[in-house]
Amino acid sequence: xxxxxxxxxxxxxxxxxxxxxxxxxxxxxxxxxxxxxxxxxxxxxxxxxxxxxxxxxxxxxxxxxxxxxxxxxxxxxxxxxxxxxxxxxxxxxxxxxxxxxxxxxxxxxxxxxxxxxxxxxxxxxx
Amino acid sequence: xxxxxxxxxxxxxxxxxxxxxxxxxxxxxxxxxxxxxxxxxxxxxxxxxxxxxxxxxxxxxxxxxxxxxxxxxxxxxxxxxxxxxxxxxxxxxxxxxxxxxxxxxxxx
Lengths: 126, 108
Hints:
heterodimer; A: mainly beta; seven-stranded mixed sheet; four-stranded antiparallel sheet; globular; B: mainly beta; six-stranded mixed sheet; three-stranded antiparallel sheet; 0% helix
């Protein structure tokens, strides 16, 4: 059974750095093909993909936020960490982590987010 | 960057079919995935690879994709289908993941 859970501060001040941890079970991030991603959702707004880290440590970032994001993994602890620098009130959102592995799609192997954490609300306020 | 556009809302009577569109440039050559999200909950994958269903998802959920529009269809709509729905693709050219703008489905 795959589970993921996000943890981190509920409130951060503007200009601070946010560090979120995704702790998971039921799979290993050292297994070929597996990936973990971060997605956020401001209150009342749409989902926004942030970052993804693959089993081989390859990483992808949202182009609009790339300069502020870092995603890392600790395979031995079954954790993925996302840091976001220079937080602003517009970054107030629920942050989700999600499991992904390649599926056979029409266009070739593709990744979908098939298991999600419950999400953690982060408020940016002074 | 690649943009996916959905109608903000769709209303449907119980027992009818809801159709939710997802527009994107040449989306027909991409694999489209759909998520259902109920208030206060994490999204749930309901359709992937245009028209495949994860285990446990009813056959009432189906998808299609051609040209510049992908569509999620929910047949025999039930009150429990009320939720926000998001499409998602992987943009191969940029190796980035993109979500649509989201559609709120209301069951009348």
